[in-house]
Amino acid sequence: MVFARRLNLIEYSLTHLLLTASLTDSHSIMIRYLKQYPDILKVPVVSPVFVMGLPRTGTTLLHRLLSLDTKRFRAPLLWELLNPVPSRDKDGTHSLTYSLAY
User: Fold this and answer.
1) Alpha helices in the chain (DSSP H)
2) What is the pLDDT of residues 7-27, one digit of tens each?
Protein backbone atom coordinates (compact mmCIF):
# COMPACT_ATOMS: atom_id res chain seq x y z
CA MET A 1 0.00 0.00 0.00
CA VAL A 2 1.29 3.47 -0.89
CA PHE A 3 0.96 6.26 1.62
CA ALA A 4 1.10 9.80 0.31
CA ARG A 5 2.14 12.64 2.53
CA ARG A 6 0.88 16.18 2.26
CA LEU A 7 3.17 18.80 0.78
CA ASN A 8 4.46 21.45 3.12
CA LEU A 9 3.90 25.11 2.26
CA ILE A 10 7.21 25.53 0.41
CA GLU A 11 6.75 22.33 -1.62
CA TYR A 12 3.17 23.26 -2.47
CA SER A 13 4.13 26.81 -3.49
CA LEU A 14 7.03 25.66 -5.64
CA THR A 15 4.95 22.97 -7.34
CA HIS A 16 2.15 25.45 -7.99
CA LEU A 17 4.60 28.00 -9.40
CA LEU A 18 6.31 25.49 -11.72
CA LEU A 19 3.05 24.01 -13.02
CA THR A 20 1.49 27.42 -13.59
CA ALA A 21 4.57 28.70 -15.41
CA SER A 22 4.74 25.59 -17.58
CA LEU A 23 1.06 25.72 -18.55
CA THR A 24 1.17 29.47 -19.21
CA ASP A 25 4.25 29.10 -21.40
CA SER A 26 2.76 26.18 -23.36
CA HIS A 27 -0.50 28.07 -23.86
CA SER A 28 1.20 31.22 -25.15
CA ILE A 29 3.38 29.19 -27.55
CA MET A 30 0.28 27.45 -28.93
CA ILE A 31 -1.62 30.74 -29.34
CA ARG A 32 1.32 32.32 -31.22
CA TYR A 33 1.59 29.26 -33.45
CA LEU A 34 -2.13 29.28 -34.26
CA LYS A 35 -2.00 33.00 -35.11
CA GLN A 36 0.93 32.36 -37.43
CA TYR A 37 -0.69 29.30 -39.06
CA PRO A 38 -4.48 29.76 -38.84
CA ASP A 39 -5.11 27.09 -41.50
CA ILE A 40 -4.42 24.43 -38.87
CA LEU A 41 -7.82 25.21 -37.39
CA LYS A 42 -9.45 24.30 -40.72
CA VAL A 43 -8.17 20.70 -40.63
CA PRO A 44 -11.17 18.52 -39.84
CA VAL A 45 -11.04 16.18 -36.88
CA VAL A 46 -13.47 13.42 -37.74
CA SER A 47 -14.95 11.36 -34.91
CA PRO A 48 -12.23 11.52 -32.25
CA VAL A 49 -12.13 8.62 -29.81
CA PHE A 50 -11.22 9.17 -26.16
CA VAL A 51 -10.41 6.19 -23.97
CA MET A 52 -11.26 6.98 -20.34
CA GLY A 53 -12.06 4.86 -17.34
CA LEU A 54 -11.29 4.02 -13.76
CA PRO A 55 -8.02 2.24 -12.93
CA ARG A 56 -7.91 -1.52 -13.57
CA THR A 57 -10.92 -1.50 -15.92
CA GLY A 58 -9.13 -2.40 -19.18
CA THR A 59 -8.52 1.07 -20.62
CA THR A 60 -4.86 0.33 -21.39
CA LEU A 61 -5.82 -2.87 -23.20
CA LEU A 62 -8.49 -1.03 -25.20
CA HIS A 63 -6.04 1.78 -26.04
CA ARG A 64 -3.45 -0.74 -27.25
CA LEU A 65 -6.02 -2.64 -29.30
CA LEU A 66 -7.23 0.57 -30.97
CA SER A 67 -3.66 1.65 -31.72
CA LEU A 68 -3.15 -1.55 -33.76
CA ASP A 69 -5.71 -0.33 -36.32
CA THR A 70 -3.52 2.33 -37.96
CA LYS A 71 -5.96 2.92 -40.81
CA ARG A 72 -8.76 4.19 -38.55
CA PHE A 73 -7.05 5.40 -35.38
CA ARG A 74 -3.95 7.32 -34.42
CA ALA A 75 -2.72 8.07 -30.95
CA PRO A 76 -0.32 10.96 -30.33
CA LEU A 77 3.26 9.96 -29.73
CA LEU A 78 4.93 10.94 -26.47
CA TRP A 79 7.01 13.69 -28.09
CA GLU A 80 3.84 15.14 -29.63
CA LEU A 81 2.20 15.30 -26.21
CA LEU A 82 5.24 16.91 -24.62
CA ASN A 83 5.86 19.41 -27.42
CA PRO A 84 2.70 19.88 -29.55
CA VAL A 85 4.11 22.89 -31.42
CA PRO A 86 7.01 22.06 -33.74
CA SER A 87 10.24 23.84 -32.93
CA ARG A 88 11.99 26.03 -35.48
CA ASP A 89 15.54 25.78 -36.74
CA LYS A 90 17.77 28.87 -36.96
CA ASP A 91 16.77 29.40 -40.60
CA GLY A 92 13.10 29.61 -39.59
CA THR A 93 12.01 26.25 -40.95
CA HIS A 94 10.32 23.61 -38.84
CA SER A 95 12.62 20.87 -37.63
CA LEU A 96 9.74 18.38 -37.68
CA THR A 97 7.24 17.77 -40.42
CA TYR A 98 3.68 17.25 -39.28
CA SER A 99 1.09 15.31 -41.18
CA LEU A 100 -2.13 17.15 -40.39
CA ALA A 101 -4.55 14.90 -42.26
CA TYR A 102 -4.55 11.13 -42.17
Assistant:
1) 9-36, 59-68, 78-82
2) 899 999 999 999 898 888 888
